[in-house]
Amino acid sequence: MATHSSKHSMRRVVLASALALGAVTASAAPAFAEPVTVPGIGTFDIPGVPAQTIELPVLPGLPPLPAVPAAPGAPALAPIVTAGEKAVQAAASKIGSPYVWGAAGPDSFDCSGLVQWAFKQAGIVLPRTSYDQAAAGVSVSTSALQPGDVVSFYGGSHSGIYAGNGEVIHAATSGTPVKRAPISSMPMDGARRY
């Protein structure tokens, strides 16, 4: 009897885990239920979920289950975009905008103003000056840079946003508009992740 009970409990845990991980969704829809088959686990009636066989994520200690194609007409999952990637997109949208010392957008920028403005578009509040931007966040090594990391140059007096592929988007100096440049074109001090 203990074996049957533990198998039943394991099935509940796996199904609950699948629901939590988003492998299965169950809505509080009408009171009709069609069977959902989970290979190696069993068949369950879940209201609002059409009859189907689902794929569960591989859980440690359990063998992988066979893949199941998506339901016809099911929407494609949108890629996850990080706040850093949103900041890169915002900064990239301002390439060509004029450099104005002390400006923080939306039409002109200094270096830290561009960084602060771009992150604000991504929903993150950053300090205003390049020195404060270089001191906040979490330190990131050069080898671990990801798009959206704030890069500090010239002893902390200049900042930009790492755009990937060895490039940074920054508001350089008076007379030079916001641009994308090789990160190696300036002496880098460090990077921070927000």
Automatic annotation (TrEMBL):
Gene3D superfamilies named among the record's database cross-references: endopeptidase domain like (from Nostoc punctiforme) (3.90.1720.10)
Keywords: Hydrolase, Protease, Signal, Thiol protease
Domain NlpC/P60: 81-194
Pfam families attached to this UniProt entry: NLPC_P60
Coiled coil: none
InterPro entries the UniProt entry points to: NLP_P60_dom, Papain-like_cys_pep_sf, PG_Endopeptidase_C40, TAT_signal
Signal peptide: 1-28
Family listed: Belongs to the peptidase C40 family.
Protein name as catalogued: NlpC/P60 family protein
Organism name: Rhodococcus kronopolitis
